[in-house]
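Predict structure. Chain length: 127.
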Amino acid sequence: MRRFSRADRLAEEIMKAISEIIREDMRDPRLDPMISLTRAEVTKDLKYATVFVSIYGDDDKRQKAMDALIGGAGFIRSRVGAIMRIRVLPEIRFKLDDSIEHGAKIAQLLKKAKEEQTEPEEGGQEE
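Prediction complete.
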């Protein structure tokens, strides 16, 4: 029984390499330090790698950072190839992942609902 497929292992290594490249090699001012790579998926034929990116900030900042990543995809791919030394390197695609922001909004709504729920109870005790 296999625990992980080759595509899964490759996705993990690509994500590590891209994270290092963004942090150390890319000098684009549109790239904010608050960029997180949340996950990577590689197709079974190993031709395409989709890297999901979470970017903290407003919509304009996110769009600029995504433009920088998409524009630098060729540079990133060449650097990944130099780091990993594999025969065929997947084409790298970037997608915005808003799951962290979505989770924060849900947590905020739950906190607000809990606060509203405790307020009427406190009012009932004063009577």
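Summary: The CA atoms of residues 6 and 19 lie 20 Å apart.
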